[in-house]
Amino acid sequence: MRSNLSRNVFLVLLCFVLLIIILTIAHLPFGAWLKEGFSTVFAFISRPFVQFGEWIASTWENLTRLSSITSELEKLRQENSQLLAEKVLMEEARKENESLRALLNLKNSLTALDTKAASVLAADSALYGRSLLISLGSNDGIKEQMPVLAPNGGLVGQILEIYPTKSRVLLITDANSFVSGKIQSSGELAVVKGDGLEGCYLERLLKETQMKAGDVVVTSGQGGIFPPGLVIGKIKEVFARGSLHLRATIVPQADFSELKFVLVVVGPKE
Fold it and tell me: Tens digit of pLDDT for each residue in 180-192?
């Protein structure tokens, strides 16, 4: 410990002596030259430290800028998400307005029928097969078997069950749905059945039946449930069903995936 203390005292005295010598030499004729040389050597030795300090400052500035950019990107991302959400809401509002406008036009065109508009509350309950729950019930005068239409005029189905403020609609695509139909171009009658999925079909038609893809199928008015002339859909494909009969698949006029409002046909206008 004593040797370390002696060494430290010696180094302090040495530095002090060197400082006195430098200050003394600085006043001699060649002092300026020596001073300049000392400055050059000091600058050379200190350059790495200066460069390191500049690198630290530059790195810190870049990190600060990166943090600012990251913060700005996050802000822009949030604004973009908000704009996308607003766009979705605006698109939904636009579709609802178009649907309501189409529903009003349909209501006005059915001059011989008394109708009531309802909103779709739920769709395709597994318990009831392919069906809709709508916002009208017995309190609104709704009864079983009343026809239900889409805003574009396509037949949706008929009232299946009634509650005080709601009703369940059996879709024409349900496997238990049967509608008395007619091929509009030829006037030939046929029963329209639901395929249990997304469409309907005409079955056990005689091979002489005149029909083709694109023909419109409407309600015939027979059976006392559906008024005549309501559009069911268009024939998609016709193919043989044995040696004597034909079968035709139908694409419904109503778009069930976009259905938000419906029109219930209460009965003929008095």
Answer: 999 999 888 999 9
> What digits encode the pLDDT tens for the residues 68-88?
777 777 787 887 777 777 777
Q: What is the DSSP string of 63-124?
A: HHHHHHHHHHHHHHHHHHHHHHHHHHHHHHHHHHHHHHHHHHHHHHH-TTEEEEEEEEEEE-
Give the tens place of pLDDT for each residue, 201-220: 998 788 788 889 999 999 99
- Where in the chain does DSSP place strands (E)? 113-123, 131-134, 147-149, 155-162, 167-171, 178-183, 189-194, 200-206, 216-219, 231-241, 245-252, 261-268
Contacts within 8 Å (CB) and 24+ apart, 232-236: 232/154, 232/155, 232/172, 232/179, 232/181, 232/192, 232/200, 233/154, 233/199, 233/200, 235/183, 235/202, 235/211, 236/199
* Domain 114-270 -> CATH class: mainly beta
Nearest-angstrom CA–CA distance, 106 and 184 = 20
Span 52-61, average pLDDT: 71
Break the chain into its structural domains and give their ranges: 1-109, 114-270
